[in-house]
Amino acid sequence: MAEALVVRGVSKRFGGLRAVADFSFSVNEGETVALIGPNGAGKTTSFNLITGYYRPDAGSITAFGRELVGLPPYEICTLGLARTFQVARPFGQMTVLANVMTGAFLRDRRPHIARERAREAIRFVGLADKENALAADLTTIDERRLEMARALATEPKLLLLDEVMAGLNPSEIDQAVGLVGQLAQRGLTIVIVEHVMRAIMAVARHIVVLDHGQKIAEGTPRTVVGNPEVIRAYLGTGYAHPHPHATD
Amino acid sequence: MVPIKTIAIVLAATILIALPLVVKNAFALDICIRVLLFAFIGVAWNLMGGYAKQLSLGHAAFFGLGAYTSTLLLIRLGISPWIGIVAGGVVAMLVSLPIGWLCFRLRGPYFAIATIAVAQVLMLLFLKLRDFAWGAEGTTLPNLGNAPLMMQFGGKAGYYWLALVLLALALAITYRIERSWMGYYLVAVGEDEDAAEAIGVNAPRIKRDVYLISAFLTALAGTFYVQYIYFIDPNTAFSFNVSVEAALVSIVGGIGTLWGPVLGTILLEPTSALLQSTLGSGRGGVQLTVYALILMAVILWRPTGLLGIFTDTYQRIARRG
Amino acid sequence: MFSTVAQAVINGLLIGGIYALVSIGVTLIFGVVKVVNFAQGEFVMIGMYISFFLATKLGVDPLLSLAISMPALFLIGVLLQETLIRRVLGLGDMPQIFLTFALSLLLMNVALLLFTANYQTVHTAYSDASFQVGPVYVSVAKLIAFVVAMLLSGALWLFLHATDMGKAMRAAAQNRDVAMLMGINPNRVFSVAVGLALALAGAAGSLLMPFYPAYPTVGQVFTLMAFVAVILGTLGNVTGALIAGLMMGIAESLGIQFVGADSGLIVVFLMLLVTLAVRPSGLFGGWSR
């Protein structure tokens, strides 16, 4: 199977802090991969490196055969990588529809086409009844839905989801898991950063574990969970009692 | 049946066009011209400052470049200001490129500060250009009487109609942009640049493009203004007040809205003209004191501008009727 | 040649002390409250008029009037924070920029209405005094202003490093939540920060009065200088603002000496623009993105 995303030997330091060190992993097309690890392990930093918000100090990142290092975020998005932010960042003064249309304009500049595609994405995430609401007035779960719809409207081939389930209650998590599952079935490649273990087990076939900026384990959910290194990294936190408001 | 909205627009346009035929009072017509001109500058500023939230406090740079380009062409080469006004716009666009390159690296307040610095540098530069551009003394423009081909009109009516056309042009451009992908992109960049880039918005390019348009339009106002007052010097052309007023009318009226700057100017400009005529221009400071108080009041109590009050009332009435 | 350069550098350094005081104020407010104060220069203006009227009406030496202008401006600062700035915190760039901007317009024009645009000066025994060091003449009034400015900067540094309130301010500049965790009421921290910043501006005004005329728009130059210094020195960085303030003074003075009497500001602005071009994050660290 072809590789959608290849991260090879990527490192990033902030001042004296080593955020990510010699990190490598790859994602096959159509696969859903979860990136997990304790707080501060470098998961969000990895997303920022892949999507062009940070420039790695070393290493290379390729998606669909194109080198991403050095490209600005909007070009990376144009290549078919869309992301959500850990803390949702809706355009507060726009309506839900306008938010998602802004994403849809990437592929077609005609407003009526963009509106149509935006409505599709909004319907998919289940926000159809709120398309005229101001984004600033949404609840947390609806903000996450909006964020996902906006990303989907850019028609990505690879979707990077940063803790889309943090702060959701169990039934909302089930809904979110359902959405991710549907996207995977459509053939979308997904990289998901998540703390909610139940969700990870449900959606990911492959898990990469980060700790202190380094990859400590990788494999199927079953093998990763049994890995002593992983258990040590998580001891007392994360796995045993998923932290509901975990931040990275 | 013709919709009420169309009738209202046609009616309003007719009144606006016919106004100078009815109003013969030079003072009143002067106020109308200033309202149209500053509304025009406000609309130009608002494209970039309102929609994309790039809060420039240096738009006098483009006003001045427009004014000086057409005046230099007119006096040095005898070229008609009708050509000069377009040339001024082009010069402003060209200058906006390096300014944007420098200033757009900065966000929020730092951007505003950098734009002030740029406008000041241009003013100081023109103060230095004594031989080429008349230095600090400035120059008067040759009075050709009624010479429409040289953008000079016998009465005020000609200037009124020209200003009206300029404002209509700026509003039409804004209207088109607001409804196109570009309008969405501008607002997205204004709301959250990082999030906009994540969904493929080329923020540097969209900011550059809107700056080009805004600079071009502001320069047209500069040419118009010197043609109207027959005088140019660096302190008039690059007046900090122009930069302030461009932002002020937009904020008071409603930042990032089509009609906001127009409403803001209608409220502010006659107020200041009346203040000046009743208190006399000798008493400096009254106009800006009042402006400052209005601005503070709007920011503290209605930061989205006063336009909202009107549209809310309109909708309430419309819903009832 | 050497003596001309040396003279320009000394003159610039001395006035740079004043720029540093104003810049530190701007950077302090920005660091702690996250608001850029466009009216900082107008508080220098107010300090000048306080000293001017104390000198002309009551015969108080401008340097002694520091004891009045500083506490007065401190109180104005607390009031400013409590009544105005507090209401726009967290509302985004537009209200924050234009509130202090409107305040600057207001103060300038009210001063114009009250005091007219005339230049007001105070002549003291030391106003014209100077002494010679090698080839260089040193103005006594400017030297006093510089020394006091440096002492005040040092005192502020000590305050920020040695007191709980000062530490809370530095913590707030790093991270708002940390300051709250330290159990210090953030509103009090904000008020004291704005108060101190304005007290420094007031001090600058009093120190200027023996050798610099007061007029309603005098503050604009100081605000612009402070902004440039603060961008060069990286916003929120007190030491950076101090050094950059001194540099601005020297750059302006060299500009006046070698480009022309009215070119000081051009040199300063060009310095800002060149810095933005080559090092957009300022000379002493990063802030953008």
Give a written overview of the molecule.
The complex is a heterotrimer of chains A (248), B (321) and C (289). With 248 residues, chain A is an alpha/beta fold. Chain A is 35% helix and 25% strand. A six-stranded mixed β-sheet of chain A has the order 6-7-8-3-9-10, with helices on both faces. Chain A has a four-stranded antiparallel β-sheet with strand order 2-1-4-5, covered by helices on one side. In chain A, α6 links the parallel β7 and β8. Chain A starts with a strand and ends in a 14-residue tail after the last helix. Chain B has helices spanning 4-22, 26-51, 60-77, 81-103, 109-128, 130-133, 156-179, 181-191, 193-198, 203-229, 234-237, 240-253, 260-279, 286-301, 307-320; strands spanning 139-140, 231-232. In chain B, strands 1-2 form a two-stranded antiparallel sheet. Chain B is mainly α and 321 residues long. In chain B, α2 runs parallel beside α7 and α7 (156-179) crosses α8. The model of chain B has no long low-confidence stretch (mean pLDDT 90). Chain B has a domain at 26-239. Chain B is globular. Chain C has one domain. A two-stranded antiparallel sheet of chain C has the order 1-2. In chain C, a hairpin with a 2-residue loop joins β1 and β2 (136-139). The model of chain C is unreliable at 283-289 (pLDDT under 50). At the A-B interface, α2, α3 and α5 of A face α8 and α9 of B.
